[in-house]
Amino acid sequence: MRLYTRSGDQGKTRVIGGTRDKDDIRIEAYGTCDELNACTAKAAAVLDDALFPDIAGELRRIQHELFDCGSDLSSIKEDAEWKMGCESITYLERRIDIYTEEAPALQRFILPGGTTASAELHICRTVARRAERQITTLAKMETINEEVQRYINRLSDYFFAAARIVNHRLDIADIEYKRSAVVFREGHNKE
């Protein structure tokens, strides 16, 4: 199998059901999901599987789901059969709730960092937010699987919660943003 096709040399690329310009918002959206998948792989690579078997397994699951998101976003077919459904969102919500319960309560914004693994998870969070912005723009212009938009939104919250848990389990305190007012109240321990 050849890895190059030369079909993109003129700035076009194939999607499910047709072709688009490489700078089309649809291509940007699923391309950012691909970038997020690579960032997730990096986070998993620096995470100690022995200390964090739960998060390591979740990151592998997320990588598969990000491929599903990319597949759904790359389809322009009217009768597309979507891969992403609400069960993946429900799963993330359960994991976020568990990690939020385990972590110390937040009152102020925190800076990304602490451990290398936590920093990598924060990078995943910010790339997920960018993907979400692109997907939101795309959804205003064309039909998409709305579950993808919901999933990516929830995924950024998951990465935030997981980044905090990595630091917490290693007894590394989150670094509060010095000029932050109290922004989180009891029961609102999320980004």
Automatic annotation (TrEMBL):
It catalyses: 2 cob(II)alamin + reduced [electron-transfer flavoprotein] + 2 ATP = 2 adenosylcob(III)alamin + 2 triphosphate + oxidized [electron-transfer flavoprotein] + 3 H(+); 2 cob(II)yrinate a,c diamide + reduced [electron-transfer flavoprotein] + 2 ATP = 2 adenosylcob(III)yrinate a,c-diamide + 2 triphosphate + oxidized [electron-transfer flavoprotein] + 3 H(+). Residues 3-165 form the Cobalamin adenosyltransferase-like domain. Its EC number is 2.5.1.17. It is an enzyme of class 2 (transferase). Keywords: ATP-binding, Cobalamin biosynthesis, Nucleotide-binding, Transferase. InterPro entries: CblAdoTrfase-like (IPR016030), CblAdoTrfase-like_sf (IPR036451), PduO-typ (IPR029499). One of its GO terms (molecular function) is corrinoid adenosyltransferase activity. Belongs to the Cob(I)alamin adenosyltransferase family. This is Corrinoid adenosyltransferase.
